[in-house]
Amino acid sequence: MGITADRRMVRRALRALVVGAALSLLICVRAQAAVICLDPGHGGIGTTGAGAYYPPYMEKVLNFAVASQVKAELEQAGHTVYMTRNGDVSLDLDQRAAYAKSVGADLLISIHFNSSGAHDKYGSEVWTSMYGGHRTTGYALGNSILSQLAGLGFVSKGAKTKLGNSGDYYGIIRHGVSYGIPTIIVEHCFMDNVIDRAILESKGYTALAHADAVGITNYLNSVGGVVPKSDPVVFAEGSTAGGGVGVASSTAASDPYKTKYGFAKDALGNVTYVDPAGSSMVFTAAEWNKLLGNWSYTSDAEACLKQQTLEVLKVLLSR
Ligand SMILES: [Zn+2]
Q: Cα–Cα distance between 123 and 191 in angstroms, integer?
């Protein structure tokens, strides 16, 4: 064998190596790719279908802006992404889920922002199905997203399930899992609450969208890009579906991150009190309880407490 033949062999071997590496890279990228359907919640001309509306924020607009950015970021990561609506249109919940089914979605992720009547609730939360593999997937995906949102400063209220009269309480989840698609609702934060709004405004909605994209990507990486298949869960409308995993459903009443009159309470029970003049002070749980004790003879101690100035409360504390 001459020198030329040697070189030819080396070249051939090198070429095989390069092609092999390129192929394995392709397979690697393929294995990571998933089909994701994003559902920007609500929609419809004007304030019709606005969702939560707390000027200047209209939920449908925020939902759409966040979903659009999540789509772009996930596509950049090699995933195939669809959106249930590409404009300000009204869709019912089954239309959204049916669309996800029609595009062969592995996951249906409904994007929302929250608000509460008394503007006193805050934090991020994810709702998932109570049933079978949908629950496992929803919890893992939801917590992955929530950990990213917590990194921005939002309190994570966890991934939760809620049971209604016909299976899962939330329609988009009920319809999604009836098509066999693990479905979650991401409630990013309460856009009408001072605590959440401060974070939303300082970080910007783009940071929230990025948090979603990272959370979703981390989840997909954790399952090798292959979302476990879950059987469709068919609910008989008007009846309570059986077969739910024994998980207590969460209700607003058990929400620990608020006090009755909207004074923010952190995980340790420290309460941020804002008096009628707008001055604020943080009380420890023990201090707060001591203050409430001043009106223990009434049925609503907090209602009495909230009428006091900070000066009065300081005096009461020192006694
Ligand atoms: Zn909503």
A: 10
Q: Report CA(16)–ligand 1 centroid distance (Å).
A: 54
113 alpha carbon – ligand 1 mean position (Å): 5
> What are the residues facing 53 on neighbouring strands?
58
What's the CA-to-centroid distance between 71 and ligand 1, angstroms?
19
For the chain, list the domains and their CATH numbers: 34-254 (3.40.630.40), 264-318 (no CATH)
What are the CA-CA distances from residue 254 to residues 72, 79, 165, 217, 249 (Å)? 37, 38, 20, 31, 10
Q: Compute the distance from residue 230 Cα to the ligand 1 centre, in Å.
A: 25
CA distance 57 to 64: 12
Cα(51) to ligand 1 centroid in Å equals: 5
The position carrying tokens 């929230």 is 208
Task: Identify any residues that bridge with 190 across adjacent strands, giving them in sequence order.
Answer: 114
Kindly give the distance from the C-alpha atom of residue 55 to the centroid of ligand 1, in angstroms, as a whole number.
15
Q: Give the pTM.
A: 0.69
Any residues with CB less than 8 A from the CB of 99 and at least 6 apart, and which? Answer: 37, 82, 84, 91
17-65 pLDDT per residue, tens: 665 555 555 444 444 689 999 999 999 987 778 998 888 889 999 999 9
